[in-house]
């Protein structure tokens, strides 16, 4: 150790730079392993599966195990590639699928707006609360989402059903004489989705709003801006990133949602996640299920890139 | 001033209304778990018999054991993968490899579950076709699926912690001759341990909770708890599920409270030390 210090004193800056460099080199020695393990894992279990979905979406269905024909065939000394676009044509021509896509997009739009309308004021109130209360309030918002998702949906089955809590209370009060059909309607699906996805809207909004510089609002107020005006011109534009992140965190998964329309929805709540599930598990039509997934992904590519851009921007900001 | 007060009160009212919206269904769920009657929402007197029924239900108990096993190993693997990825994202020089890795690792965060599940199932079927492995889908395949999507969450949690960290301490350790591996385990890991624990717990709860991906990735060999609950709930409400829900809510609240309390105590202690 002594020698080390001594040499450090003798040749000052040059050694410092050189040492730093060798440090970097040593630091990156295990680089290949560190980057390689997660890289290979994701390549194998994330990227490759998508290639397979794409492949199967282009193959023709067959009554076999697995239920589709091979895409590549080697016959007569030539490699034959059989691309079957029939599944995609079916997806775009069959009104069932088209309506399911439209139903999912409509459902996702309405519930995203619903979550925003409920979540924004909540996130705002939490961000304005005294510092020591904020952690507790966020914890309270997040707590339901750590319990089971399925059970939170199930809770609404007991509340909305014909002999459920709401109908029982209304009939007891004498407001209605016959139960209102709420379970197995689109209304139930809206409620269920807003309920389960609300925390995912509040969290990014809170993260954004809590960093809002309070002095800006004070300055606006000092200059005579009314609070609603301040909100529209300062608070809302500055929280745009949080609004985008929260909306995408709700919108994207809701488009593919299966559990909520299955449990709370009725025959008219047609959503693509449910249709895909049925195509795969009930009809065992793997090629059509795959092309449904590919089209869904194509529809979601814009929201996904929007979210990614926001995510990487906010990550870079932190550095 | 009065205007600002009015707005303040509007968002505060919304906050409390929202909290009631979030918690009322849970309380109703818990309340009716003590219902004597088999009809969940018709009150028939206080009883804890459904808890007894729950603990005699072999299928549910087996599923709980399966889910806990899968969740334990999946969250452990997710922490390893996610931490490595987070390390690459925050400590490595910008490169093509880093860019694709960070894109791939965070993609499952916003991927609809049906797509992830379907794609993994098709992969497993293909692999079984080509190499004869995995011969049967079950716990192993669910473990792989859960490790992959939980790693995304761990990577986000750990990378934000790594970014806040003062790198000079790691540099100092290496200046003093510690190998990168030693630096990582003796310096970095203790400093990011809260994030590692948080990531592990988050993965554990995500894995326990997942229905869609597990339904795709699993075979006849392994039925997880959400799969059992789902098939029972599909038939309608049942007080036994209310009892199960109550236990889950109780457990999660307990863990959340303990971690909050510990974090607060640690915070207080560090504040006292700095004073």
What's the β-strand tally of chain B?
0
Write down the CATH class of the domain at 79-233 in chain B: Mainly Alpha
What is CATH's topology name of the largest domain in chain A? MetI-like fold
Shape field of chain A = globular
CATH class of the largest domain in chain A: Mainly Alpha
- How many domains comprise the coordinates of chain A? 2
Describe what is shown at a glance.
Chain B: Belongs to the binding-protein-dependent transport system permease family. CysTW subfamily. Chain B: Its main location: membrane. Chain A has 319 residues and is mainly alpha-helical.
Question: Main traits of this protein?
Answer:
heterodimer, A: 319 residues, mainly alpha, MetI-like fold, 2 domains, 15 helices, 2 strands, 3% strand, disordered N terminus, B: 275 residues, 11 helices
Description:
The complex is a heterodimer of chains A (319) and B (275). By secondary structure, chain A is mainly alpha-helical. Chain A folds into two domains: 2-81, no CATH class; 86-318, MetI-like fold, CATH 1.10.3720.10. In chain A, 75% of the residues lie in helices and 3% in strands. Chain A is built from 15 helices and two strands. In chain A, strands 1-2 form a two-stranded antiparallel ribbon. The radius of gyration of chain A is 27 Å and the shape is globular. Chain A starts with a helix and ends with a helix. Residues 1-22 of chain A have low confidence and may be disordered. By secondary structure, chain B is mainly α. Among the domains of chain B are: 79-233, MetI-like fold; 237-268. Chain B has eleven helices and no strands. Chain B has helices at 2-33, 49-56, 58-91, 96-106, 113-131, 139-164, 167-175, 180-209, 212-217, 225-234, 239-274. The chains are: A mainly alpha (319), B mainly alpha (275). Chains A and B meet through helix 2, helix 3, helix 5, helix 6 and helix 7 of A and helix 1, helix 3, helix 4, helix 5 and helix 6 of B.
